[in-house]
Every structure is written in C-alpha cells, then in structure tokens.
C-alpha cells in the first residue's frame, strides 16, 4: 500500500456519546444530510458514470476483494471493515468501523447507498462466542436498521452452509427449506443461525430491502483463510479415522461472481450456492497434496480431545462433525434463478493447494 | 483413494469392470462421486465380492428383470428379511447385472449406519442412502431407481417363525410414488429368510448396543438359494383423497408382492 493511500488518523465523532468511538477512513467523504441521502442516491443522477453506490462489508476479506473488483466496473463501491485491528488493510477498505458504534451511521449519512453487500462476518475460529454474537448478530441488526433508515434498496447477505448442522441423519442435497439444525446440534454456530433468522425476518417484514441470503458451501481458493482452506493448505492435515465425508467446494472467484450476479439480477430470497460436484474429504486432502494425520474418531470425546491438542492445525472441536458427516447442499435453485454455473473445476481448485506445497 | 487405487487392479475382474462401466452415471461428478456418495471404483471392488455371493454362494435366480426400465425414476418395492440387508444387495446387483438396460438402484439404509466408522462411507460409496423421504424425493427428481423395503426393521428383524409373512408397510413409498409420478416395480424375495434365521430378538442386548434388534441367529449368512421375482410396473395417480385411499394402494402393492413370493416359493426345489 502506498503512502498516499494510508488511512487517516481516527476521526472524532460529533456527539459526546460517540466521542470515544472512531471511524478510520482513507479519504474525506462529503458530508450529506439524511434527507439528501434518501432522496437521491449518489451516482444515480444524469451524467453519472456508475449505476449507484454500494456498501461492501468485510472489505478486507479475500471474497470481498474479488466482489469489489467486479463491482467497480459499474458501481461506486465503499468498503467497510470491522474485524479487529490490523497493521494494513487492502485498497478495498475505505472505513474501519465497528457496526455497533455510532460513527457507523456517518458512513450511511455521507454516502447514499443503493445496496449493501454484507460479507463481513467473524468466523467460527475468530474470537469468542459472545464477541462473534455481538459483531455478527447485533452488528448486523444495526446495519439493517440503518439500511431501512437511509432507504437502501437491496441487501445481499452472505451466510454459510454450516447453518444446516452436521449430523449422521442429514439427507443429501439439502435444499433451502431444510431446518437450520445447527442451532440444536452445535451451540458455537448459533450466531450464524441467528444472523439468518434476522435476515429472514427482514426479508418478509421489509420487502423493500430486497434481501437475498446466500448460503455457500466451502469457499476455497487463493487468499481464503477459512477452516477448510487452512486444512488444504497444510502439508499434514487431520482427518477422523473411518470418516471421509463428501464435501462441496466453490472457488472464491466463482463465489464473487455469484454474489455480484445475485445483486445485479435481484431476486430476493434464500439460496444455497454450491456446484453440482462432490469430493470426499480424504480424497480432497490427497489431491491437495496433504498427508493425512488420522485421529481417533470413537468415542467422540476422544476425537474432540485429539482435535483440541492439535490447536490451529485442526478445525475447532465444535466443527468436528463437519469433518465426519456429509452436508451436501442443493445449489440448483440459485443456478436456475441466476443462470449461474461455476467456471473453476474442483480439480483446478485442489491443484491450487497442491501448488502451495 | 490410495486404498482404492491399490485394491482395484488386484481384485476387480474384467467382467465386473465392464458391468460397472456400463451403468448410467449421469449424477457422478468430476471426482467420481454422486451427491449421495456413490463411487464407481469402490462399487467395482465391492461388486467383486457381491458377484461371487450372487452367483456361487446364494445362487440367485432372477426373473422378470425386463420389468425394470433402464432409465427414468423408479421404486423397486419388496419384502424385507434375513437380519442383514442381503436382500437389498442381491436385488441391486441383479438389476445392475442385467444383460440389457442395466442400472444401479440405490438401497435405503438405516439412519445409524453413517455414524459407524468405515461402514457409513463404504455403504454410501456402493449405493446405500439413508432412508429419508427428502433423499428419496431428490433421487427420484434425478431419475434414479430406488430399492425400498417398506417393512423396515419390522421385516428384516422378524423371527423365522414369521417367515414370508409381510409385516406392516409404511406409507411413505406410496406418497413418494404418487407425488413424483414414479412407477413401482414389486419384487418378491425368497431365500433370504433362510440365510439368517432368527429364533428370537434379544431386545435388552439390542437396547444396550443401540441396535434396532439383536437376533439369536447364525453368525454368518447360510448359503440358501435366493429367488427374485420382479413384477410388472404399477402406476398410481396422485389423486388420493385421504390416508385410507393410500392404505388401499399400499395393500395393492402388498398383494402383488405376496403373489411374487408365492411364485418364488413354487420355483424353489430346495432351500440350500
């Protein structure tokens, strides 16, 4: 990142209540009144070169960077990041702000967003359960309140297939109507289910928000740092003795295309996003050039203990069932509705990880 | 994957290779798996053993295989027996081994199988699928053939004194057939009752081990001759007014299976 693009020092909020909260921003934004923002979104006027202004959350993430790159061709994009404090953020981040703080509203005041693409979520391995709940659920509730207040016309929300929960009794090709059993099966994943419920309530209560919820399978590829991607990147990856669940993977570039397409075509609803291609976990590890480290699978308590002992070299123990039982989702509704087909094959995706070894 | 690569050239004969290669694989993805976990390479290794059981151990005689269409959605509904799901394996192999229009019907397995190390993955990779209505519906939408035993464990776990007496049928298969416009091919299985005759179900032991039943039976299946009789496809319109209508239709299928069982018993000259 060049010096010219480095973030400005923290700006003080106007009100006393917000005085201790900060919005760090890279470029000074023009101050607009709430009425102005609602009346005429920026970039929609005659002579405008773009179709509107879009807020992308989680802008420092690999997926968001791809999404923003695709969007920038036709839209003004404002990237917001709320996750932690890191030394440097990529160019896609315009603001670093906690959704639960008052200065976050300033971002809405200053830009008249026509749409929000909500990709920012603290993953299961990051932070504590309470912190995740606060950021993911309470923060998103605030985001939606602001979206309503400032007349945002469309919201795309990134969820996860983890909401279905991993269980031996799961059918294959789980469709969108299937219960989100994770809330019952694994307490640690409850924030993901709550987040979905929040969007679902708004989907029906506020149809003017045009909410689309995307539940992708495992996202993988360059830059992705989720649990499964970490396993595939390691030279030695753990697997449970006697279990090799079927999995689905989508390349980060394909997922970015899916997000942008759902935004551009605007068919509100809940959609699984997954290719119609499958691979067993242990096969995936071998194709990715990983050596398998077999962990005891029974009794389950021993398996959890073994996973905990490996620390960051293994998935968190509460996600262990996803490495034991298949959770195969049916992405056909999304494929039909948005005329979407992934461009990257599974072989290509796994070859990427093999190339890292 | 490496185990498969090691075993396949050492165990699979050319005939079994050709049988599996000839099967339709429209749902198999680029990595050799379909959404329910079927893997043709594992199926080949397993079929090598199944073929020996089918031809030399149980000496299966299958009649009416022409009634099983080579494509399109289909439910193959039969009587369940023999403690172990040998009847499902034999029915599936008979259809996969047809001279013309062969296909691999999927068998429903108990919901607790996937929680058993190795067994769950292995059963999925040779065509077993947990008996869930959503699974069946998705498979029918993808034009698969499914072997269903509506008696469930009531049939497979029954004692020998109840042999060839159909137990209560669940109605789920009929609802699926009606809702998805799927023909039902009835099949009468004769011989599997004698492969593992059970004197009694030791229920306390079954409860303790978390198993659906624990039979007092031979430790390995006995080499009884098996006769499979496939009946003509039965079609049911989706116009049932109530569950009583559905029950009558289920009784129609049960009657057809009873006739096919009687045919098989008549064909059988000796049990072993």
UniProtKB/TrEMBL annotation, chain A:
Highest rank taxon of the organism: Bacteria
Disordered: region residues: 1-44
One Pfam family cited in the UniProt record for this chain: Epimerase
Record-annotated NAD-dependent epimerase/dehydratase domain positions: 54-274
InterPro entries: Epimerase_deHydtase, Lipid_A_modif_metabolic_enz, NAD(P)-bd_dom_sf
PANTHER family in alphabetical order: BIFUNCTIONAL POLYMYXIN RESISTANCE PROTEIN ARNA, NAD-DEPENDENT EPIMERASE_DEHYDRATASE
Protein name: NAD-dependent epimerase
Lineage per the UniProt record: Bacteria, Pseudomonadati, Pseudomonadota, Gammaproteobacteria, Salinisphaerales
TrEMBL record, chain B:
One GO molecular-function entry: acyltransferase activity
Keywords assigned by UniProt, alphabetized: Acyltransferase, Transferase
Pfam families, A to Z: Acyltransferase
Residues in Phospholipid/glycerol acyltransferase domain copies: 74-192
Presence of the UniProt keyword Lipoprotein in the record: no
Leader sequence residues: none
Assigned GO CC terms: membrane
Name of the featured protein: Glycerol acyltransferase
Organism: Salinisphaera orenii MK-B5
